[in-house]
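Lecture 7 notes: from sequence to structure.

We start with a single chain of 574 residues. Read the sequence below before looking at the structure.
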Amino acid sequence: KTQSSFDDLVRISSRSPVLGTFQTLEDHFDAIYDPGYGDRFLADEYRAGYLEEAVRENSTAPISSVTSYWNRTWRLISLGHLNTWIAMASQIGFSDVTDVTNDCDSIAKQIHSAQQAIEQETETWTPPNSEIDTKIGDIQTTAITLLRRICNPSADTGNAAILVNPLGFRRRLNATIATTDSVLSGDFTSSQKPFQLSARQVVHGSQTEQAKRQWIMDVDSFGGAAVTPVPTADTSDGRREPDVVVTGEKLQNEFFVATIDEKSGGLRSIQFHGKRGNRGGQRIVYRDHARPSVSSRMVCRSVEATTLSKTSGEITTVGSILMEEQEVADFRQTFRLARGQRHLELEIELTPKVSLPPSAATWFASQLAWQDESCTLHAACQLAKFETVDPKIQSPNFVQISMSDYSLTLLAGGLPWHRRTARCKLDTMLIVGGEQQRKFRIGIGVNISHAVRAAIHFDSPTYAIDQLPASATLPNGSNALIDQCLLHLDCKNIISTFSAPVFVEGKLVAIRLRLQETEGRAGRLNISTPLTLEKVVHQNFLGQTDAQLVIDDNLHRVGIDFSEHDFIQIEMQF
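Now the structure, written as tokens:
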């Protein structure tokens, strides 16, 4: 009863239903035929005006505030999963250290505090606060220190190393690990071609340079991979494998070839091995709303291959962006490609030489182009994959372009705003009026099957600890931890967005997981763990139990049914 006309409506309805009638909610839903349960709202129906609002308010971080939010969020989510991994590892005999309660609880509280600070900062469109980055860095240092103590309680040193993947899906990790002279002499397992390190981990390449060794390895979900020096005979067949960098302007691995344009400094083409035709390209563009018919162009001054190895390659281009004959910006682009990876990584640095007006219609952008006009575009909305036909796309995680026989996936790295300026062109906005960020990181994926996973992998860090004794990688004389994942999810359309250990009297008694379906497909998820399950319950987000799930007879696996775009929380008790 907040309107002054309420009494008038009561009197009118008592005499005639011409303006409607009053009903209780119970009577309304009893009488209505379709209460809206069958409505399906599309992602394109939701439009956020945050960019225009931020530019109007003269924000100095209309884009980078969102980018920073997502980059920090994935770091914290990954640290939360790492905290859970440490808690589980301490319970299965990985070391003599079993009481990690205080350390894990402290890390969990710090992660929650940092997440709250990030949420408050994003609401005000302020530039990223370096104190938050420092806090996240301190959390990571604490977690890595605890991880090293768990893996190596004796604090001995050696040539071994451990890579940890705390996320809920298998990842191909690229890590640089310090080595010693004995390692450099060649007593690692042969890296001339992919080989089995254990039952689950495959090494796709390694390269020794300046007392460091770079490894590209498959690591299971919630799992670890041991890199242990072992004396072995050379199993190479004598044929030299090609480097990732082929010539001064080409990068290639086993999946595709990326050619850099030496005239413009952009990506000229993406081609598949054994197939003809250009699949896509990239360049930096400047769009001025006052001159809509004028296109910018890139002019490259130098192309340099800055890294040449068997594991990864890197090409850097430097040049200028011209609008007609006016020089509007200088650019520096670094293209990076690793073996075993299905995406080309780009690092972009821009130095504008013109002042951008306070308008969201003028921007610098990274433009992705392709050939097939009959393509279908999918974007991320709250980490779920939806088809989009809107020329104005808001998706900080990815935009996937699907053609009849291949797909390209823009891994946005947190950059949220994209404009489809033509049927086969997509601008990812880098700088608008007031934006102070000048360095950006994106990726271009080729034939990626699960875009949400690829985007999370692209934004999440790699955790590696080196200079360990060989005994640290073999707990209790066996490879129990290294040879299996501590938590396995068997559905590729399910991701874990949160995990936390639960301790009672210094002992791990449960872990809480939040799981999200990302591709609009219902099914059944099986979760496996080497720990013995006592009880598994489905909870609401207040931690209250809704239902108890059935555990398999072997007490190490539980199944749960999910619907499309479902978001659920479970607690696994040990």
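The two ends are 53 Å apart (CA to CA). Keep this in mind for problem set 3.
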